[in-house]
Request: fold
Amino acid sequence: MQARKLCDLLEQKREAFEGFLSATQSLGVVPDFQNNRKEISLLLNERRKCIKMIDRIDGQINTIRKESPSFMSRLSKEEKKRIARITALIGKVAVNAERINRECEATVTRWRDDFKGSIDALRRSQLSIRSNTRKAYREDQPKFLDITL
Reply:
């Protein structure tokens, strides 16, 4: 009975990893940050949900291991093979997700740096405008000009 439960948990974990991978792949093809913030936010939330699900499943698997430390040794060869197969699939998906996640992090870092550069350019422009305004309206010059016709 516990073997079936463990296999079910591992299948759920595989599906959660595949959901994480899918959201990460979608995030990797988003063309730019400015015009797609809502889509990016939804994808990040989907990834967060998958991570929480994986953590929850890991907790349940750890509970099974703690309750019965010799559980794995009592499994049949067929059950061990099934568990090994599912675990290998999880490993492949996790490796793919990690690789794509690193690429996404590089893209997000680039977006952040571009955005930061835009803010810095805006700040410099603002300082330049203030400086020019102060030069044009020095305290010793009149702000209004009287013209007689």
Summary: The mean pLDDT is 84. The helical segments are 2-28, 37-67, 77-136.
